[in-house]
Amino acid sequence: MPEALRIGVISSGPAAFATIHAACTDAGHLPVAYFYGRSLRSGGQNLSDAAETTAEILGAVPPGMDLLLPGSMDGLTLALESYHLDLVIVFGFAWKLPQHVLAIPRIGVMNIHVSMLPKYRGPAPLLWAIRNGDTTGGVTVHWMDEDFDTGNILAQQDDIPLADDITWKNYCDDAMPVIYNLLRRSLDLAACGYAGEPQDPDAATYAGFMEDDFSVINWSHSASRIHNQVRTHRYMRSAIHPLARGEGGEWLHVIRTSLAPADVPEIVCGDGRSLWLLESEPGQPPASEGPRFFRTMV
Question: What are the tens digits of pLDDT across the range 17-38?
Fold first, then answer.
């Protein structure tokens, strides 16, 4: 059996940490420190739910495990160096790691990415899968290099269901067992010195953060496009979006919609198909309204 590895884990929440910890310990390796990515970039503002997420992680941290909340790349660098790590595993961390950080662990840095790379490289792969109406998604474990999601692939699996009413919880129910199995396989390969398979750059697509205009619904778009826009914001737990004009010109925060008939307000969209408004509440106008797109609600 390969020698036990000392592992640092950089991630974004209790479910991710628990899955990675189980995969590591079941494979005979030793997680020695958790790092919670509390901001989208080095030196950036804390995420709006950082305090709540930190409390949830603390409730799930095994006794004796260190939990660190780095605020800058310098702080993360010093902390990683101090643990004399063999491997770092990253899942849901938005910072771009420079070469000097990637070189700290003896073997390297491994990333868990929720797409079938090279499809949907970038910080928001699952959001784009929902936005594009994909019915299934994938997971890839790969070595990290200096670019986003371009490193050699260790293991991947497709066909994870993306429910119509997708939430982080119901996604995790299907995805975390897959991530556990892929990570177990990848840890065995990494311990044996496997360099992974190169990605095909010609097949790559990019999944960046949502643009500002995505926060406002244009009723002249197709019903399915708007429905997926609402699904994406619902998955993000967006506080104020997406916004839309109602039939009287008032602004609405659209929370849930349906492509199937329901006993709720019906909206005729740009493609002539209907969308049913399952849940909404009054909203405030966006900072810049732009063109006022709205159609008849029947």
Answer: 999 999 999 999 999 999 998 9
